[in-house]
Amino acid sequence: MTKADIVENIYEKVGLSKEESARIVELLLEIMKQTLEQGDKIKISGFGNFMVRQKRSRRGRNPQTGEEIEISARKVLTFKASPILKKALNE
Amino acid sequence: MVKSELIQELAERGAISKTLAETVVNLVFTGMADELQQDKPIEIRGLGSFRVRTYRGYMGRNPRTGKKVEVITKKLPFFRVGKELRLRLNNESE
Question: Residues 57 to 86 of B: which have CB under 8 A from any A CB?
Fold first, then answer.
């Protein structure tokens, strides 16, 4: 499934034009990205939570050369599935 | 941000009714959940991708009591952040 399939699904089920379906799906994704960019989390009941976590810098190793390198501090995005989704996947 | 707030913002910024925004948001996430339920991967450019990973069961121990417990095989969705969002989270550009 890609973004095009999501747009297609909206187009088929909602009765909007293809252009309008695409515009709304793009806007929805942009709102989600902006929210996460601000460090806020997104909770979708029945699906799961997206959360930004701050990682401190740490020492790592290039697995190929064995060379020690500094891994810079960064923000990572984690997703935790809701119990409802987990249950659905295991039925 | 919870789902109702996402719906509210989508309605406002998209200049559509709240009812329509709610329908769209619900369709997007139930559509994704259905896809994962069929073990199919999802790839949304810019945001990230999801796929279902199977975790094998094993015999574990309750670390507090030391009792043996069986951890059963399970499937969990695995999310990987997309390049655009990863860069945006870290205030970097391509």
Answer: 74-77, 79, 81, 84-86
Indicate yes or no: CB of B85 within 8 angstroms of CB of A33.
yes
CA distance B59 to chain A (A): 19
Predicted confidence (pLDDT) per residue in A15-43, tens digit: 899 999 999 999 999 999 999 999 999 99
Q: Do A76 and B42 touch (CB under 8 A)?
A: no
pLDDT in tens, A38-75: 999 999 999 999 999 999 999 999 888 989 999 899 99
pLDDT band at residue A91 using 50, 70 and 90 as cut-offs: confident
User: Which residue is closest to A84 within chain B, CA to CA?
Assistant: B33
Contact by Cβ (8 Å): A9, B44: no
Nearest residue, CB atoms, A77 vs list B16, B27, B81: B81
Q: Among B82, B88, B86, B85, which Cα is nearest to B43's?
A: B82
The residues near B87 (Cβ < 8 Å, ≥ 6 apart) are: B93, B94
Domain boundaries, chain B: 1-38, 51-94
Domains detected in chain A: 1-39 (4.10.520.10), 41-91 (4.10.520.10)
